[in-house]
Amino acid sequence: MAEEAAVVTAEKSWVRIVTGQTPTNIAVIKYWGKRDENLILPINDSISVTLDPNHLCTTTTVAVSPAFDKDRMWLNGKEISLAGDRFQNCLREIRKRATDVEEEEKGIKIAKKDWENLHVHIASYNNFPTAAGLASSAAGLACLVFSLARLMNVKEDQGQLSAIARQGSGSACRSLYGGFVKWIMGKSEDGSDSFAVQVTDEKHWDDLVILIAVVSSQQKETSSTSGMRESVETSLLLKHRAQEIVPKRILQMEEAIKNKDFPSFARLTCADSNQFHATCLDTTPPIFYMNDTSHKIISIVEKWNRAETTPQVAYTFDAGPNAVLIARDRKAATQLLQRMLYYFPPGADADLNSFVVGDKSILQDAG
Ligand code: DP6
To answer: Which reaction does it catalyse (predicted)?
Structure first.
């Protein structure tokens, strides 16, 4: 979603403002490990589902004005530094592609060459806990790139924008599309063939209901970035996973999604989450993202699925203890909620903090 506005001030100065909104995405075949840290090039393809923007999303307002003397950014109301390479890489790549903007009635005329000397202010809000393993960087960096591209009238398509968002945070490249999305790892050294593509759109397989069981909204101890660096350096299981397991799983997962084959989808999703956490344990020193409550959720779902003739729910955990539970339909989602409330009764010292429920959905673009 993007809204554009401009304010003309008395001193013939002006402000051009764009607001964008981007949902987060949850990987069902995980990205874990980079072959190039600076360009953010992964060691395997990954597949994710983009969530409903009403529940887990970032809203970013970007503004440009000749009155601004430097680039600045605020996250959830607090100013943060833009000095890091990741922000700078995204800003540079978007600025490079900026084109002319003319809004006669508002007195705004920006030529392509002017963008080099103009500064931006960025205000970003997450409607969910930051860095708690709920893929906040995915929504955040995707939204930053999307909104800046609108502000600077960048003409690139979503695939090219996804390659820019990738340089902000790997998983961000998948949030530029709705539905199921694949990040193709690419083979080139410059990263030109490492970008996201849509596998199926947001209308495909809309029976699925996604619930997030928030076990903890605390910031994780080991960030994804440093965790995957340590795994690449020390885990033999990760090498085997990237080279032997994931290439086959990606093909099977694409088939399962296209055919709406829930049993295969659930089997692959759970197996991939478990293998990702096994590579974390295989890292030296070992990384623990899940906790006892996460393990209890896995047991509950596994037992339930085995008791039915066909699986009802898939689980997946990113770099944190929170469970993402994908129910095959609304009936299974209702039963899942009932079971969760039974095993984790709400109360002052409850193991589960809350649930977020939502359909999978699309990045909305009103622009
Ligand atoms: C476990 O995209 O946060 O969520 O590229 O270093 O910013 P950087 O890492 P990030 O890693 C996400 C890892 C994951 C799996 C996934 O989303 O595929």
So the answer is: (R)-5-diphosphomevalonate + ATP = isopentenyl diphosphate + ADP + phosphate + CO2
Q: What is the pTM of this model?
A: 0.92
* Protein residues with CB under 6 Å of any ligand 1 atom: 27, 30-32, 40, 46, 135, 137, 169-171, 224-225, 318-319
What is the distance of C-alpha 198 from the center of its chain? 14
Q: Is the pLDDT of residue 358 over 90?
A: no
Measured in Å, residue 227 CA sits from the centre of ligand 1 at 10
* CA distance linking residue 162 with residue 173, whole number of Å: 4
* Pairwise CA distance, residues 102 & 82, whole Å: 28
Q: Are 286 and 97 in contact (CB under 8 A)?
A: no
Q: Quote the ligand 1 centre to 169 CA distance (angstroms).
A: 7
Q: Ligand 1 mean position to 137 CA, how many Å?
A: 8
Under the banding of pLDDT at 50, 70 and 90, the label for residue 107 is confident
Q: Is the predicted pLDDT of residue 357 greater than 80, yes or no?
A: no
Percent of the chain with pLDDT over 90: 77
Cβ–Cβ < 8 Å for 274, 305: no
Cα of 126 from ligand 1 centre, angstroms = 17
Atom of ligand 1 nearest to the CA of 166: 5
* Residue 195 Cα to ligand 1 middle (Å): 14
What is the ipTM metric for this complex? 0.99
* Closest Cα to atom 4 of ligand 1: 318
User: Across-strand partners of 200?
Assistant: 180
E-strand stretches of the chain: 2-8, 14-23, 25-29, 34-36, 41-42, 46-50, 57-65, 72-75, 78-80, 101-103, 108-110, 119-126, 180-184, 195-200, 209-214, 313-316, 323-327, 354-359
Count the Cβ atoms, other than its own, within 10 Å of residue 187. 9
